[in-house]
Amino acid sequence: MDNNKLLDRLQKLQAVFAEKESELTSLDREIGDGDHGVNMKRGFNAVKENVKDGSTQEILKQTGMTLMRSIGGASGPLYGFSFVKMSEAAKDEIDKENLKQLLDIFDQTVSSKGKVTGGEKTMYDVISKAVQVLEESGGLKLDDLQNLADDTEDMMATKGRAAYFKEKSKGTIDPGAQSAVYILSAFDLEEE
Amino acid sequence: MTEILIISHSKDIASGTKALIEQMAEGVTVHASGGVHGGIGTNIGQIDHMLAEVKDDTICFFDIGSSLMNLEMAVEMYEGSHNIHIANAPVVEGSFLAAVEISIGTNIDDIMDKLSEMVK
Questions:
Q1: Most buried in the list A14, A44, A100, B66, measured by CB within 10 Å?
Q2: Residues of B in contact with A84 (CB under 8 A)
């Protein structure tokens, strides 16, 4: 995946999050404050508007800075900072090996900055297992990633605002896990 | 001279704490910001903006929830020449203690040691 392809994929997330806004909002209404849908839409609207060209590294960094500044709550800074960190390790042409490195950085950034270890019903439950999906399937297909988000449905939240819902947080997919599915699918290496 | 930075979810907490410590420890530089878009919250941009203004090594204080995360990210991306320390001490008591110590010339490492003993 070269810089043009990456830019195209990231810009297409604008349409994805516009379409999925109500889905994310309804998940977040169940176990959060209901703003994840509008936040993600705002973030990728800004990406489409602000990130126009550049090298692979520049595109990732600009996307990260834009997300950090346009999405509220914890998710924007976590996604944004992860993109900034990934930009430092990205190659001009992202191949499978490089993508593994980027996913490791995504994993470490969310884990260290979000103070999560897994199983807490967060975006990390999808992000931390994305490398495994890549190794097993050779790509990051939406269906495979969705299985990871679906696994958060039965988890009880112990992090973030959802933790206040305790047992009641069970039965709903975590909205951050769901948005992570869409973001990670943009890095799928297979031809469309 | 060591400076102080405060990031809060509330504009009133930030400005109130700044007013308190400036009165108690005159001459100490305090950067304070709180709230986003007229409401409750913190973002990285406002921390970047304060960090761009610091003119010496700085001790940072944060309040609840995502303020620490935002502060850590802003500090990690800081490209200036000063050392930026994050104190895990209560905002009011911690920044007050730090300001008094700064005003009597205590060095920053000793202040950080004292702050680490304060339970949040």
A1: A44
A2: 77
The secondary element (H helix, E strand) that includes residue B9 is none
| Residue A73 at interface with chain B, using a CB cutoff of 8 Å | yes
Residue A84: give its domain's CATH number.
Answer: 1.25.40.340
Secondary structure (DSSP) of B42-61 = --HHHHHHHHHH--S-EEEE
Say if A126 falls within a structural domain. yes
As given in the structure block, the two tokens for residue B21 are 């410590």
Domain that holds residue A180: 3-185
One-letter amino acid at A115 equals K
Average pLDDT of every residue of chain B: 94
Which two three-digit tokens encode residue A171? Answer: 């039965």
Closest partner CB to A69 (pick from B45, B72, B76): B45
pLDDT of residue A191: 58
Q: What is the pLDDT of residues A56-107, one digit of tens each?
A: 999 999 999 999 988 877 888 999 999 999 999 999 999 999 999 999 999 9
